[in-house]
Design brief:
0% strand, 3 helices, 91 residues, mainly alpha
Length: 91
Amino acid sequence: MYKVEKTLREGLIAGLIGATSIAIWFLIVDTIAGRPFYTPTVLGIGLLSVFGPRGDEGAVAQVIAYTIFHYGMFLGIGVLVSYIVHRAEQD
């Protein structure tokens, strides 16, 4: 039987590393282009538009919404991949 705690811990760590790496990459590329936080703002607009007509959220809310989604997806994928790797090791 695999260890749930180990799988979860390793998946969360991998997800945090991946999400932070991509976020830093977005920040570097956007800053070089002279538009810091442009990518998460645009992606936040798209994300929030899925939940209804775009209102008056503001750029900060869009960046926060996208960041929460971004980290949540990376953490979930990290845990899933960690689970698959641990199951493969058993077989």
